[in-house]
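Dear support,

I submitted the protein below through the web form. The confirmation email said the job was done, but the results page showed an empty box. After a refresh the structure appeared. I'm attaching both so you can tell me whether what I see now is the final result or a partial one.
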Amino acid sequence: MVGALVPASAASPSREAEDISAATILVTSSNLTVTYSVGGTTKLDVLTISGVQVQPLNGADGYAGYILRLSENAGTGVIAGIDSDLTTFGLLYSNPGAAKALVIQTQPGASAIAGTFFNPQPEVGTIDQFGNACFLDDTTVVTAAVATGNAALLGTLQQTVMGGTAYFTNLSAILQTPLPSVSTPPIATA
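What the results page shows now:
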């Protein structure tokens, strides 16, 4: 997922001690620039940046990356113990949004014998508005049903997703092939 920094009044620096005489943050959609001035004799201070938010711009898979000082845009400050391209300030990770739809990850076997378990068993996942897997979803209940055909579905028809996936384990159909297809209705959203 491509992310953008969210310019917000909540993104602000705070200073402790008094060797940093000025600090500002400029936030654009792609950069966070911190400008500071250091005075005093010890040149020792703590600069804390908080309230920075990132929002997704597209539906690519979740993005994870380290927050670090890049050598191609390192600025002019020299900070003891911070090496460009090496020292990380934390991990930035984007979680998927709320579940908006279901997707069949594993279709039941193409043919089956009446009364025997499907092989493989169906697996149904939840996805957000961008199509990202909702691996944090442990609450959505998925109900298996016959989409087409004249068959009765047997077994535990409802499963609660675990890690964004509903795992059916004992589904079978009364009729023999052709096996009915399985469908997933959209998740009702408020």
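Response: this is the final, complete result; the empty box was a page-load delay. The chain has no helices and 15 strands.
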